[in-house]
Structure formats: structure tokens, C-alpha cells
User: Fold this.
Amino acid sequence: MHPQRLPALTAIRFFAALWVVLFHATWIYVFPAPFQQIVARGYVGVDIFFILSGFILAYNYAPREFAKVSFWRARFARVWPVYAIGLAFTLPMFYKTIVSKHPHTALTIGVPVLLLLQSWAPGAAVAWNAPGWSLSTEAFFYASFPFLLRPLGNFFARRFWLSCAVAWILAAAPAALYAATGHDGFALPIIKFNPLVRLPEFALGIGLGHKYLAGARIKYPGAVAAASLLLLGAAAYFGDRLPFPMLHNGLLAPCSGLLLYSLACLAKSPGRFWILLGDASYSLYIFHDGILQYVLAARTRGLIPLRPQLLVAVYLVACIAVSIASFQFLELPAAAWIKRTWKPRSAPRLVADEELHALSPQ
Assistant:
């Protein structure tokens, strides 16, 4: 039997993805203060996803034995179809803006992106379909997860608070060192995107997932979740006073982790509509930047004669509509088809193979 679903964590995926979408929407419209200050720090939503990914995977897989090949198959089925369609959707823009001017980039950027390796190559990380860099980082997390699950569980079980502190320090330390030493911009993409640098956030999520499975609960989860949201909002509002690399990488990880843990402790479901939006958040994350690029190109040509306020509203509605359609008619059928057709001979299919609702961070 699969572990019970945690509906509040499904719903928060939508809001984390929406934060990223609104961050990119500032290319269209400058939001009124103080909302603009918070929206401008939307990249923190990816930090939430990395922690949530570790939490959900630990929650789903730690209670039972599972085959590594089956786990990797399940992850591939979950993320690759939408990722591939997202690349096809943004290919014309990638060709027009980059490949047509620098043909060699078809190999130097295209190959790493196709192989989900772009986050290891600073020059390719945000090329083609920019949100894909976090999928590249997640791919490394997925490859490592079967080897990290038990050791991290034991580490966090022995000294939970110390383990959380170590994960936080490791998550923020590279960015802090960069901010303190004032290196040039060459190292910044490595700090922001490299999977090894971002791994402590995922590890923190795994540790929190183990703690939750051990039965630890927050007494007043609603109040704690609200306080965590206020802290995240305040940090985002005053983000211009904080070092950008640290805010981008793990500085708010304790706040994000506490928010996720408290939401997991909530007994009340947020409702089917919000769960649907949460389920569709992966597609929202993958497709929104491509939609934005086409909207910007159409506006430049005068094809969308709308005021910025209306244009951003149309953009957001289009992103959400596409994400729901993608979830219903692409994600679910494609994942089911891959699971039916790719059955590893070396390992039987176990009950823990996949939860279609499990997180892919984006």
C-alpha cells in the first residue's frame, strides 16, 4: 500500500511554481510595491522545490525496500516526457536567438541540455529552456537518492538538529564565501546551478522526510506554516539588503523546511482544485518560460496590443491552462505508457516504484 498522500504539500507546489512564474513575469510588468519586492525574489521557489523533492521521495520510499532501476525508471517516466515537449516547444526560440548566430552551440549547449547535464556546464545551464537547469540538478539528485536515503536517515536520526544545521551551513556556505570574497561573475553560475552545491537542500528534505516518518508532528501546524510564510515574505521583501547568492542558495532553507514540515502535519485538505494545480505545477514550471518568450516576441511585433497589466494576466491564465492540459493529457498518459513498456528484467516491480503524485521539483 502506498503511503498516504499529503495534500497540503501537493498544493504548495503550485504556489512555489507560481512564485517563479511571477518572477519571470516582471519582464512584462512591474508589479506594485510591496508585491514587486517579493516577486523579484521568486527564485527562492526553486529552493522550496529541492527541499520538497527530498522530503516526498524519502516519505514515499524510506518505509520499504525498492529496486534502484525501478526507482530511476519511475523518475524518468515522471519527468522526461514533459521536459522533452518543453524543449520542442522552445526550440524555435533557441534556434533563432542562439544557434543561428553561433552554430557550434547546437552541440556545446544542445547535447548537455538533451542529456540533462546542463547544470554542470555554466554556459549551458539556462540556455534553450531556462527552467530545465533545475531538472538537470534534480536528475543528479535522483541518481544519488538510492545511495543517500539510508545513510542520511541514520545521520538525521542520531542528531536531528545538528544534521539540519550542517545541511543548512553546507547549502549556504559556497554562496556566503562567494559573497564575502567578491569573486567575478564566472563562479556565480556554478554557485547557483551546480548539483553538488545544491545537494544539501535536497539532503535536508530527505532528513525532514525521515523525521516525519518517525512520527514527529508540530502541535499547531497551521500557525507555524503561517509564521514560516511571513518569514519568507519578509526575507523576500528585504531581499535587496541580503547577499543575492545566499538568498538564491539555501539561506532561507530552514524557513522553507519548516513551512513544508508544518504543511505535512496539516490534517485538512486544501481542496481538489488546489491539488489539481499542485499536480500540474511541474508542467507550469517547464512551459512558463517558453510561453513568456513567445508573448514577448509577439508584443515586440505589435501582435498583442494590450496594456502590461492585461498582458501579464493573459500570460498567467495561459500558463495555468497549458499546465493543467499538459498534466491531464501528457504527463499522466506518458508516465503510464513508459511504466508499461519499460519493465526492467533484473528487478521485479515493487509497490514503491512510483507515486504519480510524487514531487518533481521544478
Confidence is low (pLDDT under 50) at residues 346-362. The longest helix spans residues 308-341. The radius of gyration is 20 Å. Residues 7-341 form one domain.
